[in-house]
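To whoever is on call:

I kicked off a structure prediction for a single chain this morning and the downstream step that reads the tokens threw a length-mismatch warning. I double-checked the sequence; it's 457 residues and nothing unusual in it as far as I can see. Pasting both halves so you can look.
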Amino acid sequence: DDPSGLVRLALASALQRLPIADRPALATVLVAHKEDAQDHNLPLLIWYGLIPVADRDPGALVTIAARCELPLTRKFIARRLTEDIEKNGAPVNDLLTQTTAPDDITAGLAEALTGWRKAPKPAAWDTLAAKLSTSADAALRDRVRELSVVFGDGRALDDVKKIALDSKGEIPARKAALQTLIDNRAPDLRAICEKLLDTRFLNPVAARGLATFDDPAIGALLVKAYPKFHQSERGQLLATLVSRPAFITALLDAVAAGKIPRTDITAFDARQIRSFNDPALTRQLGDAWGEQRESSADKKALIAKWKQRLTPAALAQADLSAGRATWTTACATCHTLYGEGGKLGPDLTGAGRDNLDYLLENIVDPSAVVSADFRMTVLTLKDGRVLNGMVAAKTDRTLTLQTMTEKLTIERSDIAKQEELPMSLMPEGLPEALGETAMRNLIAFLMRKTQVPLPTQ
């Protein structure tokens, strides 16, 4: 009854120390405080205390959700109960029956079922879905439609196809619809993806859908479509092309013929091709793109060569803005600097960037010392694709892989082999791929202790 938020914070903190059977009673009171809905701590602290309740008494979580005024806690309850939908679907059904906050509940369902192609449909779903289909919230309607597809509703799948193919529709909605078709292996998926391969900003998703088919003709089709992709999304297409040996030959033929710039192929793409351990592909890669030094002696020699080139006088002539542009395209996908960039690799803001030896050793030989958090995982899928990345999340049903270009959630039943390699996700060969001028600009930018503007043009 105390009106103080600090008192509720203390009680929420103590929740994790109580016997599990005693936690629902206190949590039910705490979650009823609507004024805590946007609090930074309380919704999470309460949820941390409730996590083991899902195994002991899932029905209690349904009761708590019905009283809950904290959207985040409500969503987490729905997500956790849905994770067990195959083993125990009754709590999810009860949750759908009692909910007065369908947005949070369906968001929890959607997060739990990410990567699932099929899931058991709760008896209460059709009634709730019909009610929500007229909602004024377009995002909620889309989420309900996508969940209906996962629950096996053929009519919903037809609606999703119409959205994906609607040339007047908004691109984000069409992307989401097409991804739903891919995730659920729609019967006419290939024809749909081929039709959308010419639509800019939608074509990267279409290419991802075509990657599920092991056909050399698709590789040729994707290579032909390369100029139609926006420059910012060509990396996603290349990631698709290097996922299958059947596509790689067409890609390297185009590089050799000058139809795709050699500089568009990154060192990461080259390593992905080498990961197939196919002598013919490796030889073709060497002819079209270049060789990669593997021995420690070669790397030491390469470090010494770059150290001779990157003298203080040379670095003083560097274009720092151009260096930042190179950083943005070559490094920011994985690394953070000055608060900007990805989380796939270590944050470099506080690293020893003013030391040239430190920079060259990590760029030329990134796998010399690798934290367990940043080791590369190689997945071989049952459909023949090979994917390289870092495991970002996993459940009993799915595994989420963060690659250089995207985050993929894959059903474990689709994985034929999983390997964790004692090497960095960062590929070797970056200096040679960049060239001397771009490398000089990048190193000078990295060694600077303050941010610089991007080029004006």
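Update from on-call: the warning came from a stale cache, not from the record. Cleared it. Sanity check on the structure: The radius of gyration is 25 Å.
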